[in-house]
Amino acid sequence: SVGLDLTLAGMRESIQRFQDRLQKLKAGGLFYYAGHGMQLAWRNYLLPIDVQAGSPRQLQDTSVDLNAIIDQLRQVHNPMNLIILDACRDNPFGAAGTVEQRGLSQMDAPPGTLLAYATAPGNTAADGDGSGHGLYTEQLLKEMAVPEAKLEDVFKRVRLSVRRRSNGLQIPWESTS
């Protein structure tokens, strides 16, 4: 299931279709999100295009809680899930939606899951050089194209190239179990 520039309802519908398909196939799952993401009270939120951020409660009610996605995937009992987040941005709301924490909060991946962040928890990610992808996704696409690459090696090479290209300002991060 692919979704671009989704509203909250669209994101929820797309995530539910994804979960239903995994449930039916009992296959490994790949959840990839690129866009705005932020933490609030140590929980991570993926922001739809119609998010409202007049208050912390409004932000929570009009965005998708990453923990809820992980819980949904856990219920599928499939062999493995890979969750990739290119979503660690500065506060996208300006003064209207000021938040205390930067980037996304650290999470431990549940069993059978690899959780990959574009940058370390609490940090922000670069938008890239105008190619339509952030720096992290640019490097991820490049490394995924390497024939017979092991999953761990792909993420190690991505981390190295992003760190180099950002002069150490952005260092991707993973959690596995």
Structure in words:
It is a single chain. This protein has helices spanning 8-25, 56-61, 66-76, 135-144, 151-165, and strands spanning 29-40, 43-46, 64-65, 81-88, 113-117, 173-176. Strands 3-2-1-4-5-6 form a 6-stranded mixed sheet. The protein starts with 7 loop residues before the first helix and ends with a strand. The mean pLDDT is 88. Helices cover 34% and strands 20% of the residues. It is α/β, with parallel strands linked by helices. It contains 5 helices and 6 strands, in the order αββαβαββααβ.
Concise structural overview:
This protein has 5 helices and 6 strands.
Q: What layout of secondary structure does this protein have?
A:
Blueprint: H1 8-25, E1 29-40, E2 43-46, H2 56-61, E3 64-65, H3 66-76, E4 81-88, E5 113-117, H4 135-144, H5 151-165, E6 173-176
Parallel strand pairs: 1-4, 4-5
Antiparallel strand pairs: 1-2, 2-3, 5-6
Helix pairs in contact: 1-3, 4-5
- Overall pLDDT: 88
Total strands:
6
Q: Rg from C-alpha positions?
A: 16 Å
Described by strand count, sense and barrel closure, the largest sheet is: 6 strands, mixed
Give the strand content: 15-25%
The 3D shape can be described as globular
Distance between the first and last residues' Cα:
25 Å
Low-confidence stretches: none
Indicate the percent of residues in helices: 25-40%
Strand order of the largest sheet: 3-2-1-4-5-6
What's the helix-strand series? HEEHEHEEHHE
Structural class determined from secondary elements: alpha/beta
Total helix count? 5
